[in-house]
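Quick log. Single chain, no ligands specified.
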Amino acid sequence: MKDFKKHFKTLIFGLFLTLIIAGCKSDGEEIEQPEKIYYDQAQARMSAGNYFGAIEALEAIDTRYPFGMYAEQAQVELIYAHFMNSEAEAAHSAAEKFIRLHPRHPNIDYAYFMKGLSSYTRDREILIRFTNTDISNRDISGAKESFAELTEFITRFPESQYIPYAKQRNIYLRNMIAKNELAAADYYLTIDAHVGAIRRANYVVENIPNSSENYRALKILEESYEALGYSDLLDDIKLVINNNYPNEESRLTSNDAGWSWNFLRRPDKTD
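-> predicted structure:
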């Protein structure tokens, strides 16, 4: 009888322990959800501005249903979600991945466009706007990369609906790159390094001819040629200034285009 009670207690304890382990295991496992549920979650979260949550749902589709009905759409929307969540590098990587995997997708132009935007994002613009910071004399490698990528987009997809925004953005970036070159030229002038100033100003005139900084670049060349005694070059540059900017002697031009982010939206789902 004692042995029976002993074995009975052991059996009950074993069953109890098994139930506890099973309960812990079930609590720790994530319940598998159908692909459509994940996609609907992502849409609802993005509509509510919860881009972090949307990224989770979209990544679940990409991981669990790589060949599913919503796989390609989830990948393209990940670009948008990362971008809106201020994750520029992740957005850029997602765009590159989409371009690599789906080069003939109907929304491939969107991927190229967002790739260019992600190289130089609005978080920097917000910093400038609210801190009154001029970044023309700082590292603008991101701006140069963005300009190159958006130029590639414009060349590849001249009929894309995003072309007007890409061109507008490139005007802004082109002017910033020119300002960066002339910020260095201005520094060279302060230390009488006129050859260096001429090199920077010539780069703007020759390589960024339509920027808002052309007049300023020509004036730097004029000052440097005069300081170095290059009379022939000085006469030539004065002639160029008088012919092209007859009414600009008292002011520098600034034609930066305003930039609106209202156009940003996810591309429509393709059937």
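The chain is about 70% helix and 0% strand.
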